[in-house]
Amino acid sequence: MTRINSALPRFLAVLGAGLMIFGNLAWSADDKDVSDIDKRLDASAKVLTEIMDTPDKAIPDKVMSDAKCIAVIPSMVKIAIGIGGSHGKGVATCRTEGGMWSAPAPITITGGSWGLQLGGQAVDIVMVVMNDQGMQHLLSSKFKIGADASAAAGPVGRDTGADTDWKMRAELLTYSRARGLFAGIDLNGTAVTQDKDETRILYGKFLPFSDILAGKVHARESSKPFLAVVRKYSGQARTEHGELKPSAGTPVAGSR
Hints:
The protein is an alpha+beta fold. It contains six helices and nine strands, in the order ααββαβββββαααββ. The strands form two sheets. Strands 1, 2, 3, 4, 5, 6 and 7 form a seven-stranded mixed beta sheet that branches. Strands 8-9 form a two-stranded antiparallel sheet. It is globular, with a radius of gyration of 22 Å.
């Protein structure tokens, strides 16, 4: 009995130390996850800014002003050894009924292509939803480009008359930037889904895609730079009657 009593404090001390270690590890993991989504938001803002600051190679102003939703996937990884594949994480935002831009929703895109390929590279992707039908596909939280939503490689050049281009009939215009080169890209076959894990990390709990993109969720403080860039380059917001007016900005509330 004496031996048991003398060993008990040591056991409790070891147990307590173990719990502290696991607790610190869990805390560190949570901090890392939060940091990752914050970095992704900042990277998305940087990608869109760099693209739009090159007038002759930017997304046309007409496309940006008419956009229903904008999604940015910074550093989507494309790896190919015989069979091509791709995977990336990013964020999307949509215009609400009042013309504001919604809080960002984390997304994941995955796809693949067949061909004799060898190599790998990181590619920045921008997707612009151009009409209500395309917006509904995005709000569904899961769709495949080309199968569920019609898509086309987007026109390039800030002053391009995209409203007269046949590509404007597509629900989704898609762009890529790799090694400094920016151009429209064919993403047919790529699946776009809500990133549920990062949604929980960003907002502290799971929230439906449709609620976030419909403007029912307050944006977090870390979303400010990304939303500011979207507001800056979208330029105008569409009213209920189809007229255009200057964007009033997106309300940002809440913090971590």
